[in-house]
Amino acid sequence: MGSRGHYRYHWLSHNVKQSGVDDMVLLTKINEDAIVENLKKRYMDDYIFTYIGPVLISVNPFKQMPYFGDKEVELYQGAAQYENPPHIYALADNMYRNMMIDRENQCVIISGESGAGKTVAAKYIMSYISRVSGGGAKVQHVKDIILQSNPLLEAFGNAKTLRNNNSSRFGKYFEIQFSSGGEPDGGKISNFLLEKSRVVMRNPGERSFHIFYQLIEGAREDQKSSLGITDLDYYSYLNQSESYKVDDINDKSDFQETMHAMSVIGITPEDRALVLQIVAGVLHLGNISFKEAGNYAAVESEEFLAFPAFLLGIDQTGLKGKLTSRTMDSKWGGKSESIDVTLNVEQACYTRDALAKALHAHVFDFLVESINKAMVKDHQDWNIGVLDIYGFEIFQKNGFEQFCINFVNEKLQQIFIELTLKAEQEEYVQEGIRWTPIEYFNNKIVCDLIETKNPPGIMCILDDVCATMHAVGEGADQTMLQKLRVQINSHEHFNSWNQGFIIHHYAGKVSYDSEGFCERNRDVLFTDLIELMQSSEIPFIRALFPENLNADKKGRPTTAGSKIKKQANDLVGTLMKCTPHYIRCIKPNETKKPKDWEEGRVKHQVEYLGLKENIRVRRAGYAYRRMFKKFLNRYAILTKETWPAWRGDEKQGVLHLLRAVNMDQDQFQLGRTKVFIKAPESLFLLEEMRERKFDGYARSIQRAWRKYAARKKYVQMREEASDLVLNRKERRRHSLNRNFVGDYLGMDDRPELRKFLAKREKIDFADKVTKYDRRFKGIKRDLILTPKCVYLIGREKVKQGPERGQVTEVLKRKIEVEKILGLSLSTMQDDFLVLHEQEYDSLLECVFKTEFISLLARRFEEKTQRKLPLKFSTTLEVKLKKESWGPWSAAGTRQVTFLQGQGDQAILQPSNKTLQVSIGPGLAKNTRPSKKNFALSHSSTSRTHQNYPTRAAPGPPVGHQNGGMRYTDNAANYRNASSHQQTNHRPASGGMNRPFQLPTVNIGQFKGRNSKAQPNLDCLRVPEQGAAGVRRQTVSRPAPGGGRPKPAPKPKPQMPQCKALYAYDAQDTDELSFNADDVIDIVKEDASGWWTGRLRGKQGLFPNNYVTKI
Predict the structure, then answer these.
(1) Is residue 857 part of a domain?
(2) Measured between alpha carbons, how far is 726 from 738 in angstroms, rounded to an integer?
(3) Residues 778 and 905 grouped into a single domain
(4) 114 among the known binding-site residues?
(5) Which residue is catalytic, options 391, 500, 955, 1089?
(6) Is the peptide bond before 151 cis (omega within 30 degrees of 0)?
(7) Is residue 489 part of a domain?
């Protein structure tokens, strides 16, 4: 990622090299080679996502990619699919929005072979939904559980295989449950077929479940001591495959993450310790070995019994007995009796391994149950399901586990075919839509081969053999194979060989070794072992084995095959009730290295995933279809005839809507009950128009609410400010009821001032003030208050360098809010205040002092948790800064005394070290602002003369040192208004105290307008008379248009008109906003200075001194 100038280039930049096509529906040629080539181009340029219409293709990059941060979350949230490059966030956002819009459950089916990136894709979906959905503390807790369930279940259910370093050895369907407001407030995990055989055996080069390695690498020394933890190669269950470390996995840090996940989910410290105790117990069980003693098994070294017995809370002798013998029930002559049968070495090893597998499986079930309990909710509104299940597997030797895994993947492929290929084409026929059928391979024939009962499928025959030969171990597999050859050998997708059979799956031919099929399908834990675990002195372990051994057993025992068959069909039923979304994951290589592309492997995956057929159906079909009623409900707002309800035939209402938005006839078809829209762009057009409608209404509501909230806030701020000076200071007549604005300098457009502030620092208050030095000489400063600091910014001439002689802004003082010692003010109506700080004080004259003090007091209390010290007196003391030169250089103090005078203008009389300020009496100290001025007027046109607020007509804009525009302060206008006027009238513009006169136009001043602007040195001058409230000497802006040729005369209007000399922003709801040179119709003239006019269809009040009649 590089940058040029101020522009940052990233993966989403539109001016970078385009890699293939984003949506493969747009490919010019539709064949496997073109699809593979397009995916390769994008993969090599780090574009791992590609669309086929709504289906997302994801290629595993085998490295961390940079585009999964907050920036991308913000980019894809609420955006249409076509607006941004393909991304998993787009699919996740589409699911979430569809759930909220259609009020229908959603699911995403992530498919692909092992190592293609399915689990990572599921994590990104859950992470995105967690980040974009709102909610409080309870919702956040559910989000934390959703996210933390991943590392916990991966620790106990994932392992390194030959094809994937973090392969899911179980399947899970995670339902995120939402409230009606779209907040995740619950969830549920369903897990499928944990590969528990991995605990005791695996292929060379593979590992057992991660948790065993995490415990050994990450446990504390005291934990290792109590659990008997030592080196990895000490444990028989781990050293058989001679694979301990994985390059991109840190077992030590992952252990800490696993323990943290247990804590978040709510597993108690005691239960966490017991879980680890069982994990260690499983490892120690594997070290128990057997020797042959007279054709029977005996424990080779009994010292290896001690640790597993201790960790599992069982008797050592009892453990030995249950591993080397088995109790069998025998019925003879109507009587039942128990017989102890001594096991041989092979049977003893099998019994030991069965106990280890059962312990790990029961702990895994406990963790799933704990997660579900932590997320349980009383009722369910809507949910999004994420299916993360093991991928299709083809190994050198494929057994019962691969058979079950591939069966589940076959069922998921069947869903994809049913819903995207078969169902879509059948729907066109049912609805009478013109359509050219497309051929595709339907794998239902393979699913039937495995699961049907009549004729019997492979699972049915397997269960039958297990039931008839339940007491016989040897020969069962060969019997099953013989039955398969007899009953289904003629099936076109089945072949047999001498040690097993071959199934022609959708992903290719897989050869299964029948050895161990029947034993693993029985999946029965011997009663002896259950009794052994139920005898544990540890309640937690007893609770893991709740079986009732005394209950009568009727019927056949449930086999592993029948369990997974039922789970798979239940899963299919759940998915078919949701609106499905698809992610097809592709593994580009077997080396697990980035940028390595194996053409043949990818092409094989493209073929068996049916991507070519998917593209053809998508190109020929319709991207969107909806029932007429749902379509009308969704888009009724687009026309007045359909809003709020269409009265006629639903089909005609849909047709009316489509014609109203000018959709081309070839872009849609109307079926018998549904509307079909061809291109996604046409649908996006409808959505965009709908959103604009709602956006307009929402903005109107927002404006009304914000106006109400702002007025309420102003009342509160004004009252808080008034409370600070109540009974302590006299008030100005015309500033008592004014609104607080805060930023009077327009800081958003003042980069020369912004540069002194921190990035994105909020502005609480900004205005021009007069700062007095030790000789009481006044000079202008910009006073800025932020949540952290008070800034005083002045101007100085540059003395050296290329900008010599120019005036530039200089930071004169920066005071952290918490370091302010207090403020001192007089008891009169003047604008003076002293800002006290440890080093020295600042004597300021601030027109909006009450607003500034109230905001500063609030920030001070936030920082220090105490009130801002305020002192009111007729004598103020100012501590000076020590200077290094001149007769006034010594540090010391100055005094400001206040005397009763005449009028509202302060008269200053400096004398040596004292400044005497004379000012007339203001409003009484106990005066409070009135609330009536904040009442909303119901209509600007019906407003009477008596309803005019106290605000005077504003003065015209004045020149600014940087050439920008700002309006004169309202407070200054209040003070210059005639004091004897009634407070419920706006002051007349033509009275004796009119605040300004229109400037004289000097044509010469417009010449050379484009030349370099000269600095305005007015900011360095002392204000006239040095008194508060007196207007500072400024350069007035001339009336626009001087020196230009007169335009041709316009026809005389029906009513009098005026032309705006300056731009004006409305300060109230019943005022007009206008730009310079706008022509306004005069509805009514009023002596108050506020005229009523009409502009662009809106009628309102405006100040007459901003316009001239034409």
Answers:
(1) yes
(2) 16
(3) yes
(4) yes
(5) 391
(6) no
(7) yes
pTM passes above 0.85: no
Q: Closest Cα partner for 968 from 1037, 900, 908?
A: 1037
Question: Can you tell me which residue has the tokens 């370091």?
Answer: 819
Q: Is 112 annotated as a binding residue?
A: yes
- 155-164, 284-293, 617-626, 836-845: segment of lowest average pLDDT: 617-626
535, 318 contact by CB (below 8 A): yes
- Any catalytic annotation for residue 391? yes
> 135 catalytic, yes or no?
no
Question: Pick the catalytic residue: 393, 451, 613, 809?
Answer: 393
- Of 19, 60, 111, 114, which is the active-site residue? 114
Last residue of a domain, one of 666, 695, 725: 725
pLDDT given at position 565 = 87
Range of the domain at 697: 649-725
Q: Are residues 777 and 921 in the same domain?
A: yes
566 and 674 inside one domain: no
Which DSSP symbol is given to 113?
B
- Confirm or deny that 845 is annotated as ligand binding: no
So what's the pLDDT on residue 987? 37
Average pLDDT over residues 303-313: 91
Q: Does 783 share its domain with 678?
A: no
Q: What is the CA radius of gyration of the chain?
A: 41
Catalytic residue among 130, 133, 164, 933: 164
Q: What is the DSSP string of 2-63?
A: -EETTEEP-TT-TTS---S-SBGGG-SS-SHHHHHHHHHHHHHTT--EEEETTEEEEE--SS
Sorting pLDDT into bands at 50, 70 and 90, what band is 1052?
A: low
Query: What mean pLDDT comes out for the span 977-995?
Result: 36
According to the annotation, is 115 in a ligand binding site?
Answer: yes
Q: Is residue 627 part of a domain?
A: no
Does the pLDDT at position 178 exceed 60?
yes
**Are 511 and 494 spatial neighbours (Cβ–Cβ below 8 Å)?**
no
Tell me which residue of 261, 259, 260 sits closest to 276, measured CA to CA.
259
Averaged pLDDT score across all residues of the chain: 81
Over residues 237-259, the mean pLDDT reads 86
Considering the candidates 94, 105, 111, 115, report the single residue annotated as catalytic. Answer: 115
Say whether 117 counts as a known binding-site residue: yes
pLDDT band at 1004 (very low <50, low <70, confident <90, very high): very low
Which of the following is catalytic: 58, 168, 536, 1092? 168
Better-predicted residue by pLDDT, 619 or 53: 53
Q: Assess whether 769 and 886 both reside in one domain.
A: yes
Percentage with pLDDT > 90 across the chain: 29
- Say which of 19, 119, 521, 614 is annotated catalytic: 119
Same domain for 785 and 734: yes
Residue 335 is predicted with a pLDDT of 61
270 a catalytic residue: no
Q: Check which CATH number belongs to the domain holding 756 and give it.
A: 2.30.29.30
Q: How far apart are CA 299 and CA 293, in angstroms?
A: 10
Of 78-87, 305-314, 953-962, the least confident: 953-962
Of 383-387, 593-597, 709-713, the least confident: 709-713
Among this protein's residues, is 334 annotated catalytic?
Answer: no
Active site residue 114: yes
Query: Is 116 annotated as ligand-binding?
Result: yes
873 is catalytic: no
Cα–Cα distances in Å, from 227 out to 259, 488, 796? Answer: 16, 52, 75
Given 929, 954, 976, the domain boundary residue is 929
Q: Is the pLDDT of residue 984 over 50?
A: no
Provide the token pair at 1047. Answer: 């335009």
1024 given a catalytic annotation: no
Distance CA 351, CA 154 (A): 27
% of residues, the chain, pLDDT over 70: 83
The CATH number covering residue 422 comes to 1.20.58.530
Catalytic residue of the set 133, 167, 243, 325: 167
Average pLDDT of the residues in 947-954 = 46
Residue 787 is assigned to a structural domain of this protein: yes
Q: Is 898 found in the same domain as 854?
A: yes
Q: Tell me, yes or no, whether 735 and 661 share the same domain.
A: no
**How many structural domains does the chain have?**
3
Is 119 in the active site? yes
